[in-house]
Design a protein that fits this description.
By secondary structure, the protein is mainly α. It has one domain (8-120): Orthogonal Bundle (Globin-like). It contains seven helices and no strands. It has helices spanning 8-12, 14-31, 44-58, 70-74, 81-98, 103-114, 117-120. The protein is globular.
Length: 128
């Protein structure tokens, strides 16, 4: 399938593809000792459902994200920019290992996720 054919959502395999991606992604994230503590008290069923909505929306699918604003959800979690970057690296690896997306599609999706860093990360300092 060419990149022009449909959306990333279509090319990833629709709802089923998103579900497989999120499952494989969280398997990686939860095995990472630097990230797993962020998920100790998180209701994973709800998180998976919200992530499926978010990724379906981010890839051009028909779903609409119905969760609370990302800044509100993450404000108490003390997520650093480094942790967000590590999370994104796991996403990149998962996309490369579990999908047939082009490198351009992968970079487009990573870019869409990275737009949310200010809503998710709680770093208050940093380089200017």
């Amino acid at each position: 399938m060419k990149e022009e054919d449909g959306t990333i959502y279509d090319r990833i395999g629709g709802e089923e593809g998103i579900a497989k991606l999120i499952e494989a992604f969280y398997e990686r994230v939860l095995k990472d000792p630097a990230l797993s503590p962020h998920f100790e008290k998180v209701p994973m069923g709800k998180l998976i459902r919200m992530q499926r909505e978010f990724f379906a929306m981010a890839t051009g699918g028909p779903a609409e994200y119905t969760g609370r604003p990302l800044a509100h959800v993450h404000q108490h979690m003390h997520i650093s920019n480094a942790a967000f970057q590590r999370f994104t690296e796991h996403l990149l690896a998962t996309l490369n290992d579990t999908t047939d997306l082009s490198s351009q599609d992968v970079m487009d999706l990573i870019s869409r996720v990275n737009v949310e860093i200010d809503e998710i990360s709680n770093d208050t300092g940093g380089a200017e």
